[in-house]
């Protein structure tokens, strides 16, 4: 077994420790994407998406020692709560809810099917909190198809499941570009949002891609 | 970038420290988590808080004080405050008499206030403000943006709370005031968030954006800059078409500067607007010209009309003592 995989270790702390390496990857990625995401947001929204995710990343990095002491489910829930409580913007409640609902759904020793179910629970939470659905030109355009693909393929080969999740996320992102925004600040610009990349969909695509890379490379 | 800054990331905190130091007789700044509250709270009164992204000063912190808000929760620039900030402010000022949250209609503000109120265990109510008719796309999926009309709602509800009205009565005043208020803005240029490398809204020289949002979000139409009278005519037409005030409705006419337009010009706008309303047989009963809901350094202005329903004129005239707005005291 490698450092981290969708398969389980029987030591909950070991699972969490490995997941923290993935957390580090995501935080570094989002800090590096701050300007790009702010730029996308300026075009159709208020220009704060990258800054909010950078703030979330910094707050999670500070929380790392605390997370290392928890089981997987508790750590993911705790991380989500920190994002919900401290980040603000629209990203704080949405990404924080994604993590909180995922964490609540995770058993102590999650296997691939558990991760897929947890991801689905997280995506449902985002839809409820944002009163939004796939097709509204939001992060759900990427998260929802990615989650469905992972659920469908979770019992198959891990590489295939990750590839399907990534492909679905990329397709969702491409489709989203042509949509008219119905949620978030971009919704106020109506037709003028068509053809622009939604910043939330973009950050979701970055994260899904990074998760697929990390788990694929570290498959045991 | 022509701005007075130290570290751009510290701009909100440094500005609030200066604000609180200058107005120490009226307000107190709590830094972690960040909120501004009245220097002296009135026990047993319905408490009113508002909040949202920073960069719109004096909204909201500058409207904390007697006759208006009990606390304000400033987020990062143009970004909703966090749940822990909102909860801390609510717990500091909201007692058993109840807490009213006045929320501008942006998804981030709504979600963060909603999450905070789910964790707040005293009586509370929330009213969403969506007065901006500027954007073309605001349909029934998200409603409209909350902009300068927020000042009117905060003033009227704040006066009701100061008179000793209960939570439900104050919430009802706020709902009625929000429903009776419409705003439209126009920008002659963009604004730049201190930490950003580019402006929000890029207008070519000589262009204007009709229906601009207070974060530089696009409005309904981009056009060459026209004489003030023509611009105001378009704004007034749009407002009247949207909520059809009748000659029997006394109106509040509020001309708001967006940060980069001097009072000389906002009074030109006010004069044109008042003339055009009078020419249509409409009655301007109260007036206000001030930059109260700004968008950093944006050159531009907005016009707000409120139908002053029963009781609104008296509530408007009640004393208010805040850093940004004061009269009658």
Radius of gyration of chain A: 16 Å
Report the top-level CATH class of the largest domain in chain B.
Answer: Alpha Beta
N- and C-termini, Cα separation of chain A: 4 Å
If strands are numbered along the chain, what order do they take across the biggest sheet of chain B? 1-2-4-3-5-6
Task: List the domain count of chain A as a whole number.
Answer: 1
Strand count, sense and barrel status of the largest sheet of chain A are: none
How do the helices and strands follow one another from N- to C-terminus of chain A?
HHHHHHHHH
Number of helices of chain B: 8
CATH architecture descriptor of the largest domain in chain B: 3-Layer(aba) Sandwich
Domain module count of chain B: 2
Predict the CATH topology of the largest domain in chain B: Rossmann fold
Overall number of strands of chain B: 14
Name given to the CATH homologous superfamily of chain A: DhaL domain
Overall description:
The complex is a heterodimer of chains A (220) and B (329). Chain A has one domain (12-217): Serine Threonine Protein Phosphatase 5, Tetratricopeptide repeat, CATH 1.25.40. Chain A contains nine helices and no strands. The N and C termini of chain A lie close together (4 Å). Helices cover 69% and strands 0% of the residues of chain A. Chain A is an all-alpha fold. Chain B is an alpha/beta fold. Chain B folds into two domains: 15-178, Dihydroxyacetone kinase, domain 1 (Rossmann fold), CATH 3.40.50.10440; 181-316, 2-Layer Sandwich (Hypothetical Protein Tm841, Chain: A,domain 3), CATH 3.30.1180.20. Helices cover 31% and strands 24% of the residues of chain B. Chain B has eight helices and 14 strands. Chain B has helices at residues 11-22, 83-93, 107-118, 149-162, 167-179, 228-243, 263-279, 312-317; strands spanning 27-30, 35-38, 47-54, 71-77, 99-104, 124-129, 181-187, 207-210, 221-224, 250-257, 283-290, 300-307, 320-321, 326-327. In chain B, strands 1-2-4-3-5-6 form a six-stranded mixed sheet, with helices on both faces. The longest helix of chain B has 17 residues, at 263-279. Chain B is globular. The model of chain B has no long low-confidence stretch (mean pLDDT 96). Chains A and B meet through helix 2, helix 3, helix 4 and helix 5 of A and strand 4, helix 2 and helix 3 of B.
């Amino acid at each position: 077994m490698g450092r981290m995989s969708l398969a389980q270790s029987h030591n909950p702390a070991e699972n969490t420790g490995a997941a923290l390496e993935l957390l580090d990857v995501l935080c570094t990625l989002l800090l590096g994407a701050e300007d790009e995401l702010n730029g996308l947001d300026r075009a159709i929204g208020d220009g704060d998406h990258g800054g909010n995710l950078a703030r979330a990343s910094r707050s999670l990095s500070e929380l790392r020692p605390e997370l290392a002491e928890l089981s997987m489910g508790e750590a993911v829930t705790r991380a989500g709560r920190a994002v919900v409580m401290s980040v603000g913007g629209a990203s704080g409640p949405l990404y924080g809810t994604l993590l909180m609902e995922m964490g609540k759904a995770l058993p102590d020793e999650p296997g691939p099917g558990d991760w897929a179910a947890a991801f689905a629970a997280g995506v449902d939470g985002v839809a409820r909190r944002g009163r939004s659905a796939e097709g509204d030109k939001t992060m759900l355009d990427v998260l929802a198809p990615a989650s469905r693909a992972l659920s469908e393929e979770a019992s198959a080969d891990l590489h295939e499941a990750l590839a399907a999740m990534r492909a679905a996320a990329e397709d969702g992102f491409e489709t989203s570009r042509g949509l008219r925004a119905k949620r978030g600040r971009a919704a106020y610009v109506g037709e003028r949002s068509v053809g622009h990349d939604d910043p939330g969909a973009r950050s979701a695509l970055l994260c899904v891609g990074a998760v697929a890379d990390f788990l694929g490379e570290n498959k045991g | 970038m022509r701005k007075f800054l130290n570290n751009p990331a510290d701009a909100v905190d440094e500005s609030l420290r200066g604000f609180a130091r200058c107005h120490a007789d009226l307000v107190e700044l709590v830094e972690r988590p960040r909120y501004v509250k009245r220097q002296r709270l009135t026990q047993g009164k319905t408490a009113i808080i508002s909040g949202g992204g920073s960069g719109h000063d004096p909204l909201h912190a500058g409207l904390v004080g007697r006759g208006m808000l009990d606390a304000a929760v400033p987020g990062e620039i143009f970004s909703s405050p966090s749940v822990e900030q909102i909860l801390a402010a609510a717990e500091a000022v909201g007692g058993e008499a109840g807490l009213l949250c006045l929320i501008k209609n942006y998804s981030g503000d709504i979600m963060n206030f909603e999450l905070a109120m789910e964790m707040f265990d005293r009586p509370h109510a929330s009213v969403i403000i969506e007065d901006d008719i500027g954007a073309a796309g605001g349909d029934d999926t998200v409603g409209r943006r909350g902009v300068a009309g927020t000042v009117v709602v905060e003033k009227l509800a704040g006066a009701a709370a100061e008179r000793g009205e209960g939570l439900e009565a104050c919430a009802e005043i706020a709902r009625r005031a929000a429903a009776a208020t419409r705003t439209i803005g126009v920008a002659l240029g963009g604004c730049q968030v201190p930490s950003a490398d580019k402006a929000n809204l890029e207008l070519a020289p000589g262009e204007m954006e009709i229906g601009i949002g207070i974060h530089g979000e696009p409005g309904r139409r981009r056009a060459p800059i026209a004489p003030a009278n023509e611009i105001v005519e378009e704004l007034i037409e749009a407002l009247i078409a949207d909520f059809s005030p009748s000659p029997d409705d006394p109106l509040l006419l509020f001309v708001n500067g967006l940060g980069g337009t001097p009072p000389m010009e906002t009074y030109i706008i006010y004069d044109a607007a008042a003339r055009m309303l009078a020419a249509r047989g409409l009655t301007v009963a109260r007036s206000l010209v001030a930059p109260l809901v700004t968008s950093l350094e944006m050159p531009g202005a907005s016009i707000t009309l409120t139908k002053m329903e029963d009781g609104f004129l008296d509530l408007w005239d009640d004393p208010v003592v805040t850093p940004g707005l004061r009269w009658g005291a």
